[in-house]
């Protein structure tokens, strides 16, 4: 059984490399779209502006409504804040 | 030598099958732990790689303006001064913002493209908006503008399905329509996108801009890329909860295995020793037992995680990523397997489990068989 599972895993590796090859065209088209529309972020979480445009977020994002208004969007608890914010403001 | 291993392995498998219930439950929980961890790894790495490949062409420098810690539109008068900085090829004002649609409780991103702008009165929409609103080319959509008055737009085109990870919530419209809709005056822009000749000069140019306009906030392309490189880092809120839960479940397993053998298992070891098995044979049997259980759980967990992330669009993570938003891109990340991560997962799950199963067995195996059976 372990042998069959290992073979399936090997099949998945082949599948991954074939899918990656097939996706090259779509990725190139998306990169060109990013250049044309001057996009900066992935559309992953659309519930709050600081998770929709994550790289544009700033340190006051979780306190938008008042200094005691803590993070209340689920996606804000999932994604890491932009690295440059953490570095400049240790 | 190989024959000896084969016989011991046969005996081990038969012994595992004799305790189907206990070993089945163990295998199930173990597989679940590997599945959750591998799903997180596959999903985050596939997204990181996709982000790196598509965002490599993002604007070199974005210049924003803040006032009392909040974003403020950039005056168009800034353009001339920034354009004169050595190394800056071009400065383009970007016009973009958000619109909340109370009808669907969805947030849209409005943006004015630099070229091929839709004619005034027409818009291009992302596939997510098209799906959620049931809007197709030629349909009319109305949104309330900044003054509360509705504006109608004809859908010119739906952005491609394959670009959903970038454009699912996007509405592209003309500059004239955007200014009329959002109320942003003609002498202001949301932010500025800079094209710079030499990548080595990015930081110097950003510093010069901050010197000229102390209220500006330059964001470099390298910072955008690094944001997505670390977006699902293990430290981020929910992931640390998932990892902690998985680690705790695994620690309980390991502790249970390391501290106690069932009376039945101890008796089995006693009988084997009584009929002539050496301590080394018993250790070998326990090694194979640990290997079979952990390797099976590891491989099944990995396979299920791959299917979950790359065939089922990470359906278990979607509710968390979606949060309270209505719009969520329907996308399947391109499979990307990072062997370093898989090896780490293997070392952190299979090896400790295999080792911990051997410790109590060794303790039982060195005791006198008569005492163990009693």
Greatest chain-chain interface?
A: A-B, 55 and 82 residues
Compute the number of helices of chain A.
4
The total domain count of chain A is 2
Helix and strand sequence of chain A: HHHH
Tell me the helix content of chain B.
Answer: 40-55%
Number of strands of chain B: 13
Distance between the termini of chain B: 33 Å
How would you sum up the global shape of chain B?
A: elongated
Strand content of chain B: 15-25%
Instruction: Report the uncertain regions of chain B.
Output: none
Number of helices of chain B: 14
Rg over alpha carbons of chain A: 20 Å
Rg on CA atoms of chain B, Å: 30 Å
Strand fraction of chain A: under 5%
Shape of chain A: flat
Q: Mean pLDDT across all residues of chain B, rounded?
A: 85
For the biggest sheet of chain B, the summary is: 6 strands, mixed
What is the subunit arrangement here? heterodimer
Report how far apart the termini of chain A are: 51 Å
Brief descriptors of the model:
heterodimer, A: 90 residues, mainly alpha, 2 domains, 50% helix, 0% strand, flat, B: 374 residues, alpha+beta, Barwin-like endoglucanases, six-stranded mixed beta sheet, five-stranded antiparallel beta sheet, 13 strands
Write up what this structure looks like.
With 90 residues, chain A is mainly α. Chain A folds into two domains: 1-39; 49-86, no CATH class. Chain A is 50% helix and 0% strand. Chain A has four helices and no strands. Chain A is flat. Chain A starts with a helix and ends with a helix. The model of chain A has no long low-confidence stretch (mean pLDDT 81). Chain B has 14 helices and 13 strands. Chain B has two domains: 2-54 and 227-373, no CATH class; 96-183, Barwin-like endoglucanases (Beta Barrel). The two termini of chain B are 33 Å apart. The model of chain B has no long low-confidence stretch (mean pLDDT 85). Chain B is elongated and about 95 Å long. The relative contact order of chain B is 0.18. Chain B is α+β, with helices and mostly antiparallel strands. Classes of the chains: A mainly alpha (90), B alpha+beta (374). The interface between A and B is large, with 55 and 82 residues.
């Amino acid at each position: 059984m372990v042998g069959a599972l290992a073979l399936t895993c090997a099949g998945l590796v082949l599948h991954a490399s074939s899918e990656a090859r097939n996706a090259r065209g779509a990725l190139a088209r998306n990169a060109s779209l990013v250049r044309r529309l001057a996009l900066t972020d992935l559309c992953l979480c659309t519930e709050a502006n600081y998770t929709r445009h994550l790289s544009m977020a700033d340190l006051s994002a979780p306190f938008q409504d008042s200094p005691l208004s803590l993070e209340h969007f689920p996606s804000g608890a999932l994604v890491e804040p932009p690295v440059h914010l953490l570095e400049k403001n240790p | 030598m190989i024959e000896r291993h084969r016989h011991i392995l046969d005996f081990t498998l038969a012994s595992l099958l004799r305790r189907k219930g206990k070993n089945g439950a163990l295998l199930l929980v173990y597989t679940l732990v590997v599945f959750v961890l591998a799903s997180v790894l596959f999903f985050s790495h596939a997204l990181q790689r996709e982000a790196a490949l598509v965002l490599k062409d993002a604007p070199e420098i974005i210049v924003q303006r803040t006032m009392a810690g909040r974003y403020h539109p950039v005056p168009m008068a800034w353009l001339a001064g920034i354009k004169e900085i050595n190394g800056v090829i071009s400065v383009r004002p970007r016009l973009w913002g958000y619109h909340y649609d109370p009808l669907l409780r969805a947030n849209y991103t409005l943006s004015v493209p630099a070229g091929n702008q839709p004619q005034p009165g027409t818009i291009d929409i992302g596939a997510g908006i098209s799906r959620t609103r049931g809007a197709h080319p030629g349909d009319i959509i109305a949104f309330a503008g900044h003054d509360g008055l509705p504006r109608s737009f004809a859908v010119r085109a739906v952005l491609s399905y394959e670009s959903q990870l970038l454009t699912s919530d996007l509405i592209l419209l003309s500059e004239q329509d955007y200014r009329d809709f959002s109320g942003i005056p003609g002498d202001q822009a949301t932010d500025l996108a800079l094209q710079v000749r030499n990548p080595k000069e990015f930081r110097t140019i950003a510093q010069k801009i901050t010197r000229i306009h102390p209220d500006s906030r330059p964001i470099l392309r390298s910072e955008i890329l690094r944001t997505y490189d670390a977006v699902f880092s293990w430290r981020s809120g929910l992931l640390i909860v998932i990892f902690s839960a998985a680690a705790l479940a695994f620690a309980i397993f390991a502790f249970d295995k390391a501290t106690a053998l069932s009376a039945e298992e101890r008796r089995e070891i006693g009988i084997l020793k009584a009929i002539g098995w050496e301590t080394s044979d018993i250790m070998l049997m326990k090694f194979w037992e640990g290997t079979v259980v952990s390797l099976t759980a590891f491989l099944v967990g990995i396979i299920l995680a791959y299917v979950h992330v790359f065939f089922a669009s990470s359906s278990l993570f979607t509710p968390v990523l979606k949060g309270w938003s209505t719009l969520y891109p329907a996308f399947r990340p391109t499979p990307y397997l990072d062997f370093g991560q898989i090896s780490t997962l293997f070392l952190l799950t299979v090896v400790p489990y295999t080792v911990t199963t051997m410790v109590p067995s060794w303790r039982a195996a060195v005791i006198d068989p008569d005492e163990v059976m009693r």
